[in-house]
Amino acid sequence: MFVLENGAKKGEDPRLQAISQAIRVVPHFPKQGIMFQDITTLLLDHNAFKDTVDIFVDRYRDMDISVVAGVEARGFIFGSSIALGIGAKFVPLCKPGKLPGEVISEKYVLEYGTDCLELHVGAVQSSERVIIIDDLVATGGTLSAAIRLLELAGAEVVECACVIGLSDLKVTAKLNQCFLFFTTPDIPSQRITFRYLKLVEYSHHS
């Protein structure tokens, strides 16, 4: 389950409604039954895009973060912008074969098969404080792999941050008690929620 540690009440920040409305939901894409959260429409809205980045920058500016790690691919969009805003370096976490040179790898299980994230050796130094950025959290599997990968490199993962967190999660992973900071635009009536949550052990719901 999710444990709510703290957060804003619904509608408290007027920017959140505009951010939520800027995200298009595409039914049955890329396959039947999937409600695809399309952030490309958010990127077309300069004000909503800026507000999204600013909310995260405001949170992390004074948390002594030295590294922002973005998960391929949409995590690159938000992560690099946040890194510039807080004065941190940006480190891409990529799928196999995308990074030249020596890499550290971490495999993770998907619903049908496996995938892998890679990090350049030397991109993150021991004990550096890191936040992980992605556009959306669904099962938590990718973020869990990102945490393990960065910890393998010796980093301290302070928090994960996503623009979108689906309330009806089919959760199969545990994020090592890591904090997760996100908005929830899954259905219109709940799109104005902005909160940060602590992911703890939870059961699978179909």
Automatic annotation (TrEMBL):
Keyword Cell division: no
EC number: 2.4.2.7
Cellular compartments annotated: Cytoplasm
Any single biological process term in GO: adenine salvage
InterPro entries cross-referenced by the UniProt entry: Ade_phspho_trans (IPR005764), Adenine_PRTase (IPR050120), PRTase-like (IPR029057), PRTase_dom (IPR000836)
Record carries keyword Magnesium: no
Xref: Pfam families: Pribosyltran (PF00156)
Recorded metabolic or biological pathway in which this protein acts: Purine metabolism; AMP biosynthesis via salvage pathway; AMP from adenine: step 1/1
Swiss-Prot/TrEMBL catalytic activity: AMP + diphosphate = 5-phospho-alpha-D-ribose 1-diphosphate + adenine
Annotated keywords: Cytoplasm, Glycosyltransferase, Purine salvage, Transferase
Domain Phosphoribosyltransferase: 49-164
CDD domains: PRTases_typeI
Molecular functions (GO terms): adenine phosphoribosyltransferase activity
Quaternary organization: Homodimer.
Family annotation (HAMAP family): Aden_phosphoribosyltr
Name of this protein: adenine phosphoribosyltransferase
Lineage of the organism: Eukaryota, Viridiplantae, Streptophyta, Embryophyta, Tracheophyta
